[in-house]
């Protein structure tokens, strides 16, 4: 078997799951750029802007262990799907709030925090499903795909977020982020 990092993509389930992860990772960075730039331009405060980033990533350390417990006790696909639905719902609410003209930093930060917590709760289920999708000799490549996904999000998300925000505004940019979320389950 080849050691090529993309070998696991020959499996349909891997393509679907990894494709969802790529979209989600890009969306995370799109959302961070959009909301972070709104808070920065609206307040001029580096602290309030930093709190948006903190709300994006802090839940990983708190909600992920809870997600791990859920992944061990319940059907992993169901836990993952529920987390994605919750994340998509919160992202949709964020789009509506932005569309209504709300730019209050604490409102935006709380929504980011709740959506990120939902995503972090589902992350262990995502990771736990991976060994079921590929033969043991492809597991390392499967894990490597996660690194590619996250890094593609870090590169493409800010670019896409900036372009979309200029083209359609912040509310529609976040709405575009919410739309694929609801289809990933």
Quick structural gist:
The protein has helices spanning 12-43, 46-57, 59-73, 76-99, 105-133, 139-168, 170-183.
Report the end-to-end length measured between terminal Cα atoms.
Answer: 30 Å
CATH class descriptor: Mainly Alpha
CATH architecture label name: Up-down Bundle
Query: How much is the average pLDDT?
Result: 91
- The overall number of domains is 1
Helix content: over 70%
How many helices? The count is 7
Pattern of helices and strands: HHHHHHH
Number of separate strands: 0
Model regions low in confidence, pLDDT < 50 over at least 5 residues: none
Give a short account of the largest sheet: none
CATH topology: Growth Hormone, Chain: A
Shape: globular
Work out the radius of gyration.
17 Å
CATH superfamily: MFS general substrate transporter like domains
Q: Indicate the proportion of strand residues.
A: under 5%
Structural category is mainly alpha
Explain what the structure shows.
The protein is mainly α and 185 residues long. The protein has one domain: MFS general substrate transporter like domains (Growth Hormone, Chain: A, Up-down Bundle), CATH 1.20.1250.20. Helices cover 84% and strands 0% of the residues. The chain is built from 7 helices and no strands. The radius of gyration is 17 Å and the shape is globular.
């Amino acid at each position: 078997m080849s050691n090529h990092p993309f070998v696991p993509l020959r499996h349909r389930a891997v393509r679907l799951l990894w494709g969802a992860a790529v979209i989600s990772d890009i969306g995370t960075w799109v959302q961070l750029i959009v909301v972070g730039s709104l808070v920065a331009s609206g307040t001029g405060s580096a602290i309030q802007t930093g709190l948006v980033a903190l709300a994006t990533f802090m839940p990983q350390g708190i909600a992920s262990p809870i997600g791990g417990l859920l992944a061990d006790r319940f059907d992993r696909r169901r836990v993952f799907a529920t987390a994605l639905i919750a994340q998509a719902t919160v992202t949709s609410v964020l789009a509506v709030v932005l569309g209504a003209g709300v730019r209050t930093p604490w409102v935006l930060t709380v929504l980011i925090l709740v959506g990120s917590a939902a995503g972090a709760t589902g992350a262990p289920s995502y990771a736990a499903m991976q060994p079921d999708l590929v033969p043991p000799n492809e597991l390392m490549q499967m894990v490597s795909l996660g690194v590619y996904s996250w890094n593609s999000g870090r590169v493409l998300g800010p670019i896409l977020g900036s372009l979309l925000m200029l083209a359609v505004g912040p509310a529609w940019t976040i709405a575009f982020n919410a739309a694929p979320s609801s289809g990933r389950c």
